[in-house]
Design a protein that fits this description.
It is built from 7 helices and no strands. α2 crosses α4, α3 packs antiparallel against α7 and α6 runs antiparallel to α7. The chain has 167 residues and is mainly α. It binds protoporphyrin IX containing FE.
Length: 167
C-alpha cells in the first residue's frame, strides 16, 4: 500500500520530468544546499549563543529574534526542494536507511525545538543581561540541536552515495 504511494509519486508527471531532465535535479539540489546551509547557519548562531560561545555581547532574546525568521524561511525552501528531489526517486529514497535517518533526525530536532520554545525558554528575556545566565537545560537543548543538525547533512550527503546499494 505505502509502496504504491511512493511508486505513483515517482511515476507522476512531476517525478518523471525531474528524473529525466539533465539540469532539473542538480538545479533543485543546488537550491536545496543553499537553503540547508541557511537553516543550519541560523540554528548554529542561536545554539552557540545559548552555549555562551558566540554573540556574548548580545542578549539571547535579540539573537533569537534575528535567527528564528531566517530559520523558517530557509526550512520552507529546504522542504519544497527536498520534496521535489524526493518525488524523482521516491521508492529508492524510501528504501535508503540514510534518508529515513535524516527524516527521523529532523523530527527529533523539531521536538527539541518545540520543547525549547514551549517549556525551556521561560525567562529568556533576562538571559544574557547582567545577572541573567542561561539555564543548564536550555544549554543542553542547544548542544543537542547542534549535534543533531551536524548529523542531518551527513545523512543527506550519504544518500547520494548509497543509491545503488539500497533499492
Ligand atoms: C533543513 C533540512 C535539510 C537538510 C539539512 C538537508 C540536507 C541535505 C544534504 C546535505 C543533501 C546532499 C546534497 C548534495 O549531495 O550535494 C540533501 C539532499 C537531499 N535531500 Fe535534504 N536536507 C533537508 C531537508 C530535506 C527534506 C525536508 C527532504 C524531503 C522531504 C529532503 C530530501 C532530500 C533528497 C531527496 C536529497 C537528494 C539525495 C540524493 O539523491 O543525492 N531534504 N539534503
Amino acid at each position: 500500500m505505502a509502496n504504491s504511494i511512493w511508486a505513483s509519486l515517482e511515476q507522476s508527471g512531476l517525478g518523471t520530468t525531474i528524473a529525466s531532465n539533465e539540469w532539473m535535479f542538480p538545479t533543485i539540489e543546488t537550491i536545496h544546499v543553499f537553503a540547508l546551509v541557511t537553516v543550519i547557519g541560523a540554528i548554529a548562531i542561536m545554539d552557540m549563543r545559548l552555549l555562551g560561545l558566540t554573540s556574548k555581547n548580545r542578549s539571547v532574546k535579540a539573537v533569537e529574534r534575528d535567527t528564528v525568521p531566517v530559520t523558517w524561511i530557509g526550512f520552507a525552501v529546504a522542504l519544497i526542494t527536498g520534496v521535489l528531489l524526493f518525488v524523482s526517486k521516491a521508492t529508492t529514497y524510501m528504501a535508503n536507511p540514510y534518508f529515513l535517518w535524516k527524516m527521523g533526525l529532523m523530527a527529533l530536532a523539531g521536538v527539541n525545538m518545540a520543547i525549547f520554545h514551549r517549556i525551556l525558554s521561560k525567562g529568556i528575556d533576562e538571559w544574557g543581561k547582567p545577572g541573567g545566565s542561561v539555564p543548564a537545560a536550555a544549554k543542553l537543548s542547544g548542544a543537542l540541536s547542534l549535534g543533531i543538525w551536524l548529523i542531518i547533512p551527513f545523512c543527506g550527503r550519504v544518500i547520494g552515495f548509497t543509491l545503488g546499494v539500497y533499492y
